[in-house]
Amino acid sequence: MSLNNVLPFLSTFVMFIFTASVLQRYVVRRRSAFLFWGIGLALFGLGSFAEAYLALAWSSLMFYLWYLGGAVLNAAWLGHGTVKLLFGRRRWTDVLTVILVAGSLAATALMLATPLDPTRFQPGVAISEQYREIMPPGAPVRMTTPFFNIYGLLTLAGGAIYSAYLFWRKRVLPNRVIGNILIAVGALSIGFASSLTRLGIGQYLYLGELLAAVLMYAGFRAAAAPNAERVPASESAPAAGD
Asked: What domain range includes position 147?
């Protein structure tokens, strides 16, 4: 079994632990940001699990889960969680929520309507390196990926960088500066690996996913750590651990 067959299992393990941590925080605090983050992380974990399965055998269901959860939707849901964390429930964020949900449902319908050619599947070859042969050229669902991924990358990485900057500027809560930087680097690593995959260089996708999972989880834990220094509410900024 090659390294690319093992990495998705590791990513799945990290992401499901991460998902459980975030959803537990949602149950306690009832902040919608953690619900969106939890859904995004669950999609990431399902995509990683599907990758691991497809490294061993073919399954149309696993392919649908891999492409939809791993390649299309997860970044946008994670990024939208960051938007809700930073800006709360405002009218424009509610409009973005409606667009995200409607777009996700449309992408799911397009994915399920996409015919697959399992005869082109090669066991032992990373699915990221052969999915183009399995899907028909110009499949409509593939046209949706840039919109979801660009929104997700800008909001997730951009929001984390913005939060880190606010805490750094005020010289407070260094754990949240570090945590948000780790989240931003994790988001950028999977974004870079996904971009390489779309350019036909898919062998780094699984490494990028594992790196993203570890860095974002480490960032979340760092930002959620108890703080030695209390900050007045008027001076604080939201962070992933709030």
From this structure: 3-224
